[in-house]
Amino acid sequence: MRINLHTHSNYSDGTISPREIISLAIKKGIGYLALTDHDTVNGLMSIAADDKKDIKFINGIEISTRDHDYLHILGYNVDIKNRSFLSDIEDYRERRISRAKEIIKRLNDIKIDISFEELDVSTQTTVGRPHIADLLVKKGYGKSRSDVFHKYLIEGCYPYVKPRGPDIEEAINTIRKANGLVILAHPSTVEGSFNVEELVKKGFDGIEVYYPTHTNNKIRKYFDIAKRNDLIATVGTDFHGPNTDRNIIDTFEYDSEKLLNIDRILNI
Known about the structure:
Blueprint: E1 2-4, H1 18-27, E2 30-35, H2 42-45, E3 56-64, E4 72-76, H3 83-109, H4 129-138, H5 145-153, H6 168-177, E5 181-184, H7 196-200, E6 206-210, H8 216-228, E7 232-235, H9 263-266
Parallel strand pairs: 1-2, 2-3, 5-6, 6-7
Antiparallel strand pairs: 3-4, 4-5
């Protein structure tokens, strides 16, 4: 069976519902699937037992840290009823709202006419720069998410605001509170700022070795790090929806030699 442990729904910055992701995954022959929305488990709470009866489903989350725009930490098998864990991620959601409002204020400063109230988000959704990007595209300020990100929303642009999430240790502790396993997401995105091998020694259980933008050399490097440190080697596509630039949901077959220690997550 195929395996994908990194997907996003419309409860964060994806475009389709958790149920639609499960249905699409089953059609693609995926037998092991994790939903890992940014800083929320509301999508997990929306899924009924019957929705996932035909797939091995893993409760997940992706926590965005303040240490780097792309230093994200995946948590697997989290207890979505743990009150301390839920309190932490509600705090992170509020920090996201604060950041989004500051970005919009700065966009207003340069005569871009949008408001927070216009964002396509609900009280159950975590807000992020992609939601602002989608609104900017809708109002004619760019052609795509990627286009407006590079115009307005990346570091160096006036409207850019640094992330306000937890630091690495806080994020790891939050996942631990929910008895989850801690995985470094898409390590290549932070490699210019961090030594990946030193980073995973801060309390990580694994590393996302297989990711769409990882070259064969990167895969070998991260696999070797996982092997030397007795870590889990995971695979995920960072799926955000069929009509996005992160539209890959299909991956490869379960392989215990490629996916070192993956049974710690899958419980098989």
